[in-house]
Structure formats: structure tokens, C-alpha cells
């Protein structure tokens, strides 16, 4: 991590410690957030949203997703308009990763990404909770949310942050994994042609397996120990 001047909060920030965004950390010239707790919170939201969608697909049950959307929107309102420090999911994420060394990222690009999240969750809340209607719009918005959350939690890639430079002239600072800094890849990060061929071969293997064994895999497994039959007889 490159060296930077110490960030000193101005008078307004000193007097208003509740409604603010990001935290001042020694060695950083802008406000920052802990990427590790952000990823943990994204994982929590992804899991809740994914389970709710599965209940819709397999049980046609829309009740859980309405609760998740309400909590999702509430959490993002607190993050964007109050203070990320008071976000329930970020607090839970902080507790989960409390023993890990913090990875600091710039607060500004995260705020921009979370504004996008707020807009998506507000759209879902209006359409699915208030209007009580589903459509391709709600499906697409929900899918976008899932993709954003999955990339954040699984890969540490903030897709919303990618759009930051399109709307702001200044360059984003302190990105996760230092991706904002131009640098050459280390040997362990490079992908050889052989490795790419392995990935393509693995995809071909999946397709071939689905073609050859679809009938076998489509058979419903039988109860090996007869547990369900015994339970039904009682």
C-alpha cells in the first residue's frame, strides 16, 4: 500500500460525528471503509436474497422476498444517508471479520455504488411491496442486485465502483486489491495458455456430461434406509 498523508477531519466533520460517511484512518488522505466487513455484509445480503428467490421459484412464496427487500432498503438508507457505521449488516460483518486485518478502501466510490444499490432496492420496494406486483422489471432488477452482491462477496469486485470514474473526474483511490493503481502483474497472477485450455476443456466436460448422463441424473434418488417410508407409516 502506497504511503499517503494523514487525513485530518475539518471542523464540520468534527462537530458532526453521527451523519458522515467513512472513517478517518492514520496514513490515508481520504475517508476510508473496511473492505472485509463490506464483503461480509454483501455475502449476508446475497444469501438472504438468493434464498428468497428460490422460495419464489419452487414454492411461489413471495413473502420472504418482501421482508428482505424492506430490510435491504432500510440498510442502504442508513448506509448512504446516515452513516455506514450504523448499518446493521455492516455491524454484523464487522463482528464476523473482527479478527482479520482491515483492508481499507476509499469511501467515495463505495458511496456511489451504494447509491446505485439504494436505487435498485427502492425500485423493488415500490413495485413488489407497495404496488404488490411482479414483472420482468422486478426480475431483472433482482438479478442485477444478485450479480452485484455476488461479485462483491465472492471476488471482492465492486461493480458499482466501476461506474464511479464515468461520473466523476477524479480518480478513485484505495480500491480493493489496489486495482486502481497501474502495475504489472506478478507471476502468480498470470494465466498461461495451458490453464485457459483447461478451463475450456472443463466447460466442454460439463456440456458432454449433461448430454450423456442427463437421463441418469434426472432419476429421482430412492430412500436408501427407508426413513421417509417409516415416518409415513407412523
Explained architecture:
This protein has 234 residues and is mostly helical. It folds into 2 domains: 11-184, no CATH class; 188-233, no CATH class. Helix content is 62%, strand content 3%. The chain has a two-stranded antiparallel ribbon. Mean pLDDT is 85; it is low at 1-8 and 11-15.
Please give the alpha-carbon distance between the first and last residues.
65 Å
Strand order of the largest sheet: 1-2
Please state roughly what percent of the residues sit in beta strands, choosing from under 5%, 5-15%, 15-25%, 25-35%, 35-45% or over 45%.
Answer: under 5%
Report the C-alpha radius of gyration, rounded.
23 Å
The strand count comes to 2
Number of separate domains: 2
Percent of residues in helices: 55-70%
Unreliable runs: 1-8, 11-15
Broad shape: globular
Discrete helix count: 10
Average pLDDT confidence is 85
So what's the oligomer here? single chain
Broad structural category: mainly alpha
Order of helices and strands: HEHHHEHHHHHH
Largest sheet: 2 strands, antiparallel
Quick overview:
Helix content is 62%, strand content 3%. It is an all-alpha fold and 234 residues long. The chain folds into two domains: 11-184, no CATH class; 188-233, no CATH class.
Protein traits:
234 residues, two-stranded antiparallel sheet, 2 strands, globular
Q: Could you outline the blueprint of secondary structure elements for this entry?
A:
Elements: H1 11-15, E1 32-34, H2 35-59, H3 63-82, H4 88-96, E2 104-106, H5 107-130, H6 136-155, H7 159-162, H8 164-167, H9 193-218, H10 227-233
Antiparallel strand pairs: 1-2
Helix pairs in contact: 2-3, 2-4, 2-6, 3-5, 5-6
Amino acid at each position: 500500500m502506497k504511503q499517503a498523508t494523514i487525513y485530518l477531519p475539518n471542523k464540520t466533520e468534527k462537530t458532526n460525528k453521527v451523519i458522515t460517511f467513512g472513517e478517518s484512518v492514520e496514513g490515508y488522505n481520504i475517508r476510508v471503509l473496511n473492505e472485509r466487513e463490506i464483503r461480509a455484509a454483501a455475502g449476508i445480503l446475497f444469501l438472504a436474497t438468493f434464498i428468497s428467490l428460490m422460495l419464489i421459484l419452487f414454492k411461489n412464496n413471495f413473502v420472504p422476498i418482501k421482508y428482505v427487500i424492506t430490510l435491504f432498503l432500510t440498510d442502504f438508507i442508513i448506509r448512504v444517508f446516515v452513516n455506514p457505521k450504523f448499518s446493521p449488516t455492516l455491524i454484523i460483518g464487522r463482528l464476523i471479520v473482527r479478527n482479520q486485518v482491515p483492508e481499507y478502501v476509499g469511501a467515495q466510490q463505495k458511496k456511489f455504488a451504494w447509491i446505485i444499490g439504494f436505487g435498485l432496492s427502492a425500485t423493488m420496494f415500490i413495485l413488489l411491496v407497495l404496488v404488490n406486483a411482479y414483472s420482468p422489471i422486478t426480475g431483472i432488477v433482482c438479478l442485477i442486485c444478485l450479480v452485484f452482491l455476488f461479485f462483491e462477496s465472492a471476488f471482492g469486485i465492486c461493480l458499482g465502483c466501476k461506474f464511479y470514474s464515468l461520473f466523476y473526474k477524479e480518480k478513485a483511490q484505495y480500491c480493493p486489491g489496489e486495482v486502481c493503481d497501474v502495475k504489472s502483474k506478478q507471476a502468480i497472477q498470470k494465466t498461461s495458455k495451458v490453464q485457459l485450455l483447461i478451463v475450456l476443456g472443463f466447460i466442454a466436460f460439463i456440456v458432454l456430461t449433461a448430454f450423456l448422463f442427463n437421463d441418469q441424473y434426472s432419476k429421482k434418488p430412492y430412500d436408501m434406509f427407508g426413513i421417509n417410508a417409516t415416518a409415513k407409516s407412523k
